[in-house]
Amino acid sequence: MNKAIIYIFATLTMTTPSVMDAQGPKENKKFNLEAFESRKGAFLTAELELTPDEAAEFIPLCNELQRKKFEIGQDCRSKHKLIKRAKRENKDVSDDTYKKTMNVCLESRIKEAEIEKEYYDKFLQILTPEKLYKYKDAEMKFWEKYMREQHKKKK
Q1: Same domain for 122 and 133?
Q2: Which SS3 state, helix, strand or coil, does residue 150 take?
Q3: 36 in a domain, yes or no?
Q4: Distances in whole angstroms, Cα of residue 46 to Cα of each of 115, 118, 125, 139, 153
Q5: Quick one: 88 and 135 in the same domain?
Q6: Could you tell me which residues come within 8 angstroms of residue 6 by beta carbon, excluding any fewer than 6 positions away?
Q7: Do 87 and 105 sit in the same domain of this protein?
Q8: Cα 33 to Cα 98: distance, rounded to the nearest angstrom
Q9: pLDDT digits over 109-155, tens only?
Q10: Domain interval for residue 99
Q11: Contacts of 126 (CB under 8 A, 6+ apart)
């Protein structure tokens, strides 16, 4: 019965129009983090066949990890944007700028790996090793689906 409820919830969440579609003109569209996290949580719950108790503990930790990783990568993304903008405007980018950007991005990836290890230990207290192993695949599957949908919206 619980699995049926989870699958129904996940199906409804994945098939309803996104919150961004209902917001009107393109200029007013902003990323809705809460809706995104809800959708991702439902997807992971269904894919990993999480019990309600597992989902209640695991999904908030996943969201927390995702937010921390986003924050860690902020500096890297902003430096990449500066380089892209300079290239678009046909401005030269110095070797030093490239090196600094790469170093910042490498440091970000190291910090992300460290925090993933920290959360891996927390996740193991909630999920079986098998479910935790499947988590990365499920997360990739979600991102691929999400990106395909975003690409279709742009057409």
Answers
A1: no
A2: helix
A3: yes
A4: 25, 24, 20, 12, 25
A5: no
A6: 45, 46, 49, 50, 52, 55
A7: yes
A8: 31
A9: 999 999 999 999 999 999 999 999 999 999 999 999 989 988 888 77
A10: 71-126
A11: 54, 57, 58, 61
